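pipeline stage [seq->struct] | target=Pimeloyl-ACP methyl ester carboxylesterase | organism=Paraburkholderia diazotrophica | residues=451
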Amino acid sequence: MSDDIFPPSPSRRRFVGVAAATIAAGSLSQLAFAETNQLIFSVSKPAGGDKTAIRPLRVHVPEAQLTDLRRRIKTTRWPDKETVTDDSQGVPLAMMQELARHWSTDYDWRKCEAKLNALPNFMTEIDGLDIHFIHVRSKHENAMPLVVTHGWPGSVIEQFKIIDPLTNPTAYGASASDAFHLVIPSLPGYGLSGKPTGTGWGPERTARAWVTLMKRLGYDKFAAQGGDLGGVVANVMGKQAPPELLGIHVNFPATIPADIAKALQAGDPPPAGLNDEEKHAYEQLSSAAKKRRAYALEMGTRPQTLYGLSDSPIGLAGWLLDHGDGYTQPAAALTSAVFGRTVNGESSGAMTRDDVLDDITLYWLTNTGVSSARFYWESHFNFLAAADVSVPAAVSVFPRENYQAPRSWTERAYHNLIWYNRLDKGGHFAAWEEPQLFAEEVRAGLRPLRK
């Protein structure tokens, strides 16, 4: 039927116009996606095409991706303000809107990019997956090789401030004999590492991959360090006990005895016979189980459902910032850093708002919100059950961690405990919050392994 016979009505004209605009918008959207889905780094081609070769990597994010990020932040559709005056319903609206303002106007990703590129970055394929890592060798002879693993919601950015203190100890009042050669990999599905396309890349496989990595770099003896998920990987390395592993240092110890875990799962009050340290730890763990596990349960059971982490920068930021306890530990340091002041008496230490945004922006640019969450699914929540590690182990207990591991539990979980220390400051993000103190702990904890 032609329009000559039936002239288009105003409503039909509006429909056609809307349809045309929708089609055009769709085309533009696809174009924008193509432009902002470019690789953000380049890797040198290996001789002979050997992907297992150690290949230098350099980061350079196309400006189109940064423009798109700022546009998405500025066009965020915000929810209503929370109906409480505290953070009991989640990350407060005012906090997120202030973060969004700074992120979209004042924040400069290029500064973080320059820091990354100032470090020796590499890529190598292990067990079919590209693994990114930073490798900084100390100038001191006889430095101990150490693989340091980050956690969630962290990345290699978490470790920036500990690199020089650990590789160059004499500049910080320590001995040359305390030096380390550092290898800092990105977990599978995190940052610049590849995203697994099949199942099986959990802590066990990652632990084996780190041994392969260290040996590939020429280290026949080395130690491992980790906090949060990095602590989980280090504990698994200790349990697997490869002959190359000298020992481990963790600041996220896995010490919960089976009977204590059973009582926690049942929601029981503290069992009789606990000493003061054990009772305090039980109460902390009980509180965490009741109030701070929502994010972990979702990632551990339904990570693919988190589509908003890929579509909305603010959705991603809110998810990464919230540990179910925004004004207390372990997320308090992040909250104080975002506000730029001490909140609820919880200091951010050396962590700044831009440190936090560097980390969140890396997640956004690499689109790893969901792929990083799958590591929880692969881990089956086996984070804090007694590690049952026999290799030499050093444990640092920071006061603002999820729980303060009692010495009694720690000695039962780590059968060759060479260092145990309870500190008076620092929290879950110890390397970020207290880099100098953290470096001192790593030096002291692993010193008994040096010959």
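stage status: PASS
auto-comment: The beta strands are 41-43, 55-59, 121-126, 129-136, 144-149, 180-185, 222-226, 245-250, 393-397, 417-422. Residues 10-36 form the longest helix (27 residues).
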